[in-house]
Amino acid sequence: MNPSPNLFLIGPTGAGKTTIGQRLAAHYGLPFVDLDVQIEARLGTTLVSLFEREGEAAFRALESAHLDESSRADGVVLATGAGAVLDADNRARLMSRGTVLLLSVDVAEQFDRLAHDTVRPMITGTDRRGRLESLAAERNALYEEIADLIFLGRHEHVDAAVPRAVALLDRHWRRA
C-alpha cells in the first residue's frame, strides 16, 4: 500500500460506505464525496430515474467520468457506488490514486439493512435476497482484488463500527 492522502471506500450496497465514510472524513478532517450523491446533484435527478430513462450502461459511463474526476483530489474520503469496481479503468484509478478500504458485509446483513430501501436501482424487484447474492457473486472478487484494507462489517451500530474502522486505518493507512 502506497502512501496516499486519499481514502476510497468500496463495497456492496448497504455496507455503510456513506455513513461510515462521512464519519471517517470528519475524524480525519477531510472532505467527503459520495459518488452517487454527486452524480444525482449534477444531473438533477435520482439514480432510479436515470436507470429507468437511460439504462445501466449510461449510468456506468457517468459513474466512470465522475470517479475519474473525484479520485484526482488530494486529500478526500470518497465513497464509490457498489458497482464502480465493474469497470477495469475504475479499479485501476482507485488502486493508483488512493488507499482502498473495502467495507465487507455478508448478504444476510445487507438484506436486513436494505429491507425498506426503495432508492437503489440494482436491487429492485421481488427477489431482493437473490439479487444481492447474484451481485455478491459478481463483485466480491473484484472488491478484494483492489482492496488495500478490509473492514469486516458486523451486526452493529455505526457508533461501534467507526472506532473499529479508525483503529484499522490508524494501524495501516500511510497518509501522504
Please summarize the sheet with the most strands. Answer: 5 strands, parallel
Shape: globular
Q: What is the top-level CATH class?
A: Alpha Beta
Specify the structural class. alpha/beta
Strand content: 5-15%
Q: Can you give the helix content as a percent range?
A: 40-55%
Q: State the assembly state of the protein chains.
A: single chain
Strands across the major sheet, in which order? 2-3-1-4-5
What is the typical, i.e. mean, pLDDT?
A: 88
CATH homologous superfamily label: P-loop containing nucleotide triphosphate hydrolases
Radius of gyration: 15 Å
Distance between the first and last residues' Cα:
11 Å
Question: Under the CATH scheme, which architecture would be assigned?
Answer: 3-Layer(aba) Sandwich
Low-confidence runs of at least 5 consecutive residues: none
Q: SSE string, helix = H, strand = E?
A: EHEHHEHEHHEH
Task: Tell me the count of domains.
Answer: 1
CATH topology term? Rossmann fold
| Total helical elements | 7
**How many strands in all?**
5
